[in-house]
């Protein structure tokens, strides 16, 4: 996670140096030095991030880097905020000479110079600590002895035993059919995929060890691949199970020579090779030539993986892919009883009504994940079979899941640790949503973008890149598809409760976000992102930050908590660097956003979804120059015409929003403002109005979604339809009955002309 923090800020700093060179002035040298230090730090963080789980010194070092990066980001953003305030103050005093403006700027420049120098010195000391405290070896090559020990320990973590998996027979039957399909010519490939802890290895082992499967093949081999893929070791492990090698061959043969020898041997056999726990498509790409296509008919390679993308890459047909399902409620309960009461001589214990209810709640928490059930029921098997004892386990279930190297959470964390830095942030961010929440994918993508998680790839749209990120998380079984659109694209997704628990824990450790579950929570001194999932009843959000020095970057609420005028006042100091403000299901106090919301110049995402009430946006909205997404849901809202100044706006989603007309006097004094100035706009949902007049709409060449409501026929003139015709990348056009009738009439006239 620290790698992501540093990378995102380094990129932001590089962009600022290009865009704001005149603002930084004489401090530019220190800013560039900071940027260069960040780039160096990133090189050491990739391994250090994962090793910090096992080594306290590395964990402390990584946390110090993260803290210094956050401090640097705050210093830079506060300076930009101060410069914005200064600029607006001077604009009201236009009669002052230029020299006065320069003098006014000097204190801010000097303060920035001093603070950045301090940060650079701090970063230098942190980097020096690598040598001083012997961290260089710990953060060195992933092939180190210590790392091998950790890797070995994790990949040999206890899997679900066959006898523990209730209902495994159905899956075994289907996998067995794939392996023993008679009509296959030459060598084929089959895959079992599913999230960690479902029992993929258990299922494959059950089929692999069956007597008739053993007799069906001339030879067979089983190898564990895991995250640390070493081709020669894999080939050697297979060779030792199917053929004889001399001690010299075992020691001296390289990957290529060993691969050719194995390929020659398998070419004359009907073989079965199982490659368990494949984490990368590269594994199959590199090893495929070693498994001859022209072997005896019926030869097959079976792959188990958490990633569907890997299964699709290796397997020729989806007919040979088996997706492991979660256990149903009855199967989960039977497994729970079996493990929780092992050693008692019975698998059908007599439970009191209270214990049965508690047990069902615990099993429900596992959501059909066999490994989670085994871990939790194993824990309960050591406890007294009393209501008080089980209540304690239920109350602290998240804590218990995180105990010990053999815990379910540690095994689930393997999937998280395998993610590249940019996906780690995206995965953790899914944890901000309440448990069992159906996450709107479009909303999630916009949030990822606002947070700066999406890395540019040439000329690709950020939204398309973000959608790729989401699909990769789905393929890795870290999030699940909840619903699809008519065109097959993912409409909404869910996060397994245990994976959300993992995300929340990792986020807390990395100071990524804090979830406020109740008013008794103790918050750390500094919070970057605050999430409120429960109604605070008689409290308001500002009280969550009492006695905190936080510089919030995101405030996300899914509760019914209120933000009144007093709240805004007390929140001002904490939210002045805010990038994301999401008030879903909120009752906005007075339904009027405060006039000083325009001071949140770093804001990129603003969402207010309530109960169909009326929202009035202040004229200061035009100061939100970094705003990318404005979503007011189904609220009726008044939008000032100055909204057209926000040139970075990509998504304007206010289907019941009415934009005010610009007066002639204002146009003369401040120049004309129109929709055509929002050239980055991808989504536009508004009430029809005077903004539709002229050909401005046709200049939004990036527009993909256009939703118009209450569109008066007076605006549906020739220029409007000519503008629609120019929107060549438009994918969705939602119209009112008036517009639809007019469109149909126009088409009929053209058809007869």
Description:
With 753 residues, the chain is α/β, with parallel strands linked by helices. It has 28 helices and 23 strands. Helix content is 46%, strand content 13%. It has a 10-stranded parallel β-sheet with strand order 9-10-11-13-15-17-19-21-22-23. Strands 2-3-4-1-5 form a 5-stranded parallel β-sheet, with helices on both faces. Strands 6-8-7 form a 3-stranded antiparallel β-sheet. Helix 13 links the parallel strand 3 (271-278) and strand 4. The chain is globular and about 90 Å long. Residues 95-102 and 139-159 have low confidence and may be disordered.
SS class: alpha/beta
Low-confidence parts lasting 5 or more residues at pLDDT below 50? 95-102, 139-159
**Rg, Cα atoms, Å:** 30 Å
Instruction: State the helix count.
Output: 28
Number of strands: 23
In what order do the strands lie side by side in the largest sheet?
Answer: 9-10-11-13-15-17-19-21-22-23
> What number is the mean pLDDT?
78
Helix amount: 40-55%
For this structure, the quaternary state is single chain
Proportion of strand residues: 5-15%
Please state the overall shape, judged from the principal axes of the Cα atoms.
globular
How would you sum up the major sheet?
10 strands, parallel
């Amino acid at each position: 996670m620290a790698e992501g923090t540093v990378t995102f800020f380094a990129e932001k700093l590089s962009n600022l140096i290009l865009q704001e060179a005149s603002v930084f002035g004489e401090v530019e040298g220190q800013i560039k030095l900071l940027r260069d230090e960040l780039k160096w730090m990133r090189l050491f963080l990739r391994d250090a991030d994962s090793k910090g789980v096992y080594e306290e010194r590395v964990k402390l070092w990584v946390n110090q880097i993260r803290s210094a990066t956050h401090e640097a980001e705050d210093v830079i953003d506060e300076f930009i905020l101060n410069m914005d305030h200064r600029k607006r103050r001077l604009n009201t005093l236009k009669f002052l000479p230029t020299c006065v403006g320069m003098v006014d700027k000097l204190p801010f420049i000097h303060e920035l110079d001093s603070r950045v120098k301090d940060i650079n010195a701090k970063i230098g000391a942190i980097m020096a600590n690598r040598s001083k405290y012997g961290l260089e070896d710990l953060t060195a090559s992933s092939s180190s002895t210590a790392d091998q020990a950790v890797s070995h320990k994790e990949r040999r973590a206890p899997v679900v035993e066959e006898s523990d998996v209730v209902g495994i027979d159905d899956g075994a039957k289907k996998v067995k059919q794939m392996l023993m399909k008679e009509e296959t010519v030459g060598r084929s490939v089959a895959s079992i995929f599913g999230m960690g802890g479902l029992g993929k290895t258990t299922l494959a082992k059950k089929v692999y060890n069956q007597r008739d499967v053993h007799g069906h093949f001339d030879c067979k081999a089983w190898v564990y691949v895991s995250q640390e893929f070493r081709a020669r070791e894999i080939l050697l492990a297979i060779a030792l199970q199917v053929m004889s090698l001399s001690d010299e061959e075992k020691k001296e043969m390289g990957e290529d020579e060993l691969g050719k020898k194995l390929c020659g041997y398998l070419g004359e056999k009907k073989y079965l090779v199982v490659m368990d726990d494949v984490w990368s498509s590269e594994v199959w790409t590199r090893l495929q030539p070693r498994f001859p296509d022209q072997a005896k008919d019926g030869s097959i390679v079976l792959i188990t993986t958490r990633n569907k993308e890997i299964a699709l890459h290796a397997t020729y047909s989806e007919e040979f892919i088996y997706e492991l399902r979660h256990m149903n409620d009855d199967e989960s309960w039977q497994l729970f009883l079996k493990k929780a009461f092992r050693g008692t001589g019975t698998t059908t214990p007599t439970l009191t009504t209270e214990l049965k209810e508690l047990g069902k709640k615990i099993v429900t928490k596992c959501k059909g994940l066999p490994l989670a059930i085994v871990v939790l029921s194993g824990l309960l098997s050591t406890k007294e079979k009393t209501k008080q004892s089980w209540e304690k386990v239920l109350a602290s279930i998240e804590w218990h899941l995180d105990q010990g190297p053999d815990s379910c959470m540690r095994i689930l964390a393997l999937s998280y640790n395998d993610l590249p830095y940019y996906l780690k942030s995206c995965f953790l961010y899914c944890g901000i949503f309440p448990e069992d929440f159906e996450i709107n994918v479009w909303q999630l993508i916009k949030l990822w973008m606002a947070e700066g998680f999406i890395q540019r790839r040439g000329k690709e749209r950020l939204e398309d890149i973000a959608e790729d990120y989401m699909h990769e998380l789905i393929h890795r079984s870290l999030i699940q598809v909840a619903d699809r659109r008519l065109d097959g694209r993912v409409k909404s997704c869910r996060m397994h409760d245990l994976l959300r628990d993992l995300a929340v824990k990792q986020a807390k450790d990395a100071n990524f976000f804090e979830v406020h579950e109740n008013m008794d929570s103790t918050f750390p001194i500094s919070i970057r992102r605050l999430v409120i999932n429960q109604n605070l009843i008689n409290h308001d959000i500002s009280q969550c930050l009492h006695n905190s020095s936080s510089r919030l970057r995101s405030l996300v609420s899914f509760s019914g908590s209120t933000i009144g005028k007093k709240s805004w006042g007390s929140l001002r100091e904490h939210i002045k660097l805010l990038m994301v403000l999401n008030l879903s299901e909120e009752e906005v106090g007075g339904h009027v956003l405060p006039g000083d919301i325009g001071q949140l110049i770093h804001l990129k995402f603003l969402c207010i979804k309530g109960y169909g009430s009326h929202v009035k946006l202040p004229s200061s909205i035009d100061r939100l120059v970094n705003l990318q997404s404005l979503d007011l849901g189904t609220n009726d809202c008044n939008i000032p015409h100055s909204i057209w100044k926000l040139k970075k706006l990509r998504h304007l989603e206010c289907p019941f929003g009415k934009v005010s007309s610009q007066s002639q006097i204002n146009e003369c004094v401040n120049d004309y403002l129109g929709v055509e100035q929002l050239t980055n706009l991808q989504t536009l949902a508004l009430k029809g109005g005077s903004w539709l007049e002229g050909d401005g709409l046709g200049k939004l060449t990036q527009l993909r979604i256009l939703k118009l409501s209450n569109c008066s026929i007076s605006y549906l003139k020739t220029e409007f339809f000519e503008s629609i015709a120019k929107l060549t990348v438009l994918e969705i056009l939602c119209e009112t009955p008036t517009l639809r009738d007019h469109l149909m009439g126009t088409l009929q006239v053209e058809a007869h002309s």
